[in-house]
């Protein structure tokens, strides 16, 4: 796709507005992963925006970036005009407004950047000087004559002041986060010592339960998604997660919508929560012990015992989960072979619990990544373990796990770990390496099959960049390449936690009622009380613990009182309608870009449209209920169709005209319903009755007709209609028409003459085209491309083929699958 876009000479455009990137006022990136950096340069380049900030003029967009990787921004410093450090809800709109005012006032680009740098949380790399530290060799940012130093993180004190968006984009294709997802809390107080996010998102701020529930319901109504997800760094630590999940699951069950939670700490998996999560259907369940032995869990401050891990897994299995994924890290400080073996031992114990509940259906996956000491975390001074050592540890684990059939092993490639560590811990010198690697073809470095490691090594060697300087242990109190950014957490606090790690000392979570170590592995803290003593380690943030306690008590009280839901269920919308299962048949077109939708994408698109139109579909029974929708014979991906068909059932009867209009309000122009009618529930399915399809193929290709004219030495003197008619007539005279087709993995020859109903050349309308009626459906069929290639002896790429309609052939007569029903509504 990149090559095709470059051939056109057109710039990349925005998805929502189709505006070329170089015509935008601001272009922003959310930096979630270091191995995406070459893709950022790709987007800038394809958007016709100069890669380097210093090369941009007043006419070019302002290029900004935020997100977690912005807290170690130097490898991107030459390409990004300004970074937003911290929360964006408040700072980002202010940044945009300020930029527009300054630009409209006629200021130069540099003067604009100087003004923007005065805003809280805004870091403009081009305004700062760097200096090489003689002890470490790091090129550190040392100050600026025109901008604040250091740059302090900005954060929203109350996230309830910024309601979570409920009107989100609904893609027609499959994406990773294919659901309504809402952030229920920001920040984490558990204090895992390897975790960067635990520092840069402090303090914990929770959304109000009533806002969470109603935002999800509104978003489901607007999008038609069939799954909702609660997200945060530690969902189990949301102060009222139990009653919230219970209330939410009751509402979602009425809408056949599943619920999932992210980053669930194992102690949060109670029977109440398990039942809530499995009411409609179960998503995957992941436990993150991080380390196999209790000693290692104390080192990294993962405050859970093996007993709690096994209890949580047992609860999941008891509530229907048969597959569990365990997430671990290797390469942690003080790690030994005993700690590695403990990973497998713990996996086997959990597998035994799964087998006791689910027998041969049980499966446990051990997933292992290598620890990267990330900036702003207590372990930031530690080095990355040698790559060879990490590889040997992966092989050791694999050999231990291999004998066990239902214990699977996955790992993160060491090469990716190495490159990620360089760009997460490196300094501004990496900008040149990033640009050179991009120019030589580095793209999608996070994909195993795309990472060009030799290319990266060559680039580092050419630029004399010693990457090993960022892999080593760093002396405490040495300047770091990210020290110019103030996370608001004191470095002394991080050092104190690092020292506690090497002593194997556990630090209970802050901002929670104090628990002794023996009590910290609780399954439910329960309702907070007025006299709870909250823990505070004085990390540098000024938290109002009294207000935090009161807010969480208020959240519990709101759930105890009952939260009114603003969005009506299907039962409430159709209170007066007769409850009667009704079957409908509908025709629809699939044109333009929608011809590229796969069968699964098409099902998702229609299902969501039905939900947005408030159509109460009937669902199947069983473990994983699904709406009862069935389609006619599949259409090849990439081919347009003027009329396809689907059947669906509802639990109430709705007039066909009203239903057709409601559905088309939710459909894009090139994927509209063309007809709809009620049919008998016992009527045969589309697959049972459809046995033919009409196709059209345009014959106006200059290249095709020039080839044919040359073949016949000008015999037809430009009479293209006669030429095509003669070729078709000669073709139909053949007693057999043999084509080669793949059948069950074997190439077989087949006579397709009986599958051809009719072929004719039509010249009554422009352009000149061919019409074919061919067999299709469960009885067997033939693709129109093969017929065209047989007639003309050229590739089918010369023809634009479209399926015009699906047909039912009876006694030599072809009729529409919807034509025989009693009532029909056609637009």
Task: Write structural notes for this entry.
This protein has 24 helices and 29 strands. It is globular, with a radius of gyration of 31 Å. Helix 6 (209-223) packs across helix 19, helix 7 (241-253) packs parallel to helix 8 (271-277) and helix 10 (306-318) packs parallel to helix 11 (337-358). The protein folds into five domains: 2-152, no CATH class; 156-280 and 492-566, Transcription Regulator spoIIAA, CATH 3.30.750.210; 284-413, Transcription Regulator spoIIAA (2-Layer Sandwich), CATH 3.30.750.200; 570-683, Pseudouridine synthase I, catalytic domain, N-terminal subdomain (Alpha-Beta Plaits, 2-Layer Sandwich); 692-822, no CATH class. The strands form eight sheets. Strands 18, 19, 20, 21, 22, 25, 26, 27, 28 and 29 form a ten-stranded mixed beta sheet that branches. The model is unreliable at 516-524 and 821-827 (pLDDT under 50). With 827 residues, the protein is of the alpha/beta class. The two termini are 37 Å apart.
Characterize the largest beta sheet: strand count, sense, and whether it forms a barrel: 10 strands, mixed
How confident overall, as mean pLDDT?
90
End-to-end span in angstroms?
A: 37 Å
Outline, from the CA principal axes? globular
> Radius of gyration from the CA trace?
31 Å
Low-confidence stretches: 516-524, 821-827
User: Tell me, what is the CATH class of the largest domain?
Assistant: Alpha Beta
Please tally the helical runs, counting DSSP H or I stretches of 4 or more residues. 24
Q: What CATH architecture label of the largest domain applies?
A: 2-Layer Sandwich
Helix content: 25-40%
- The overall number of domains is 5
The count of β-strands is 29
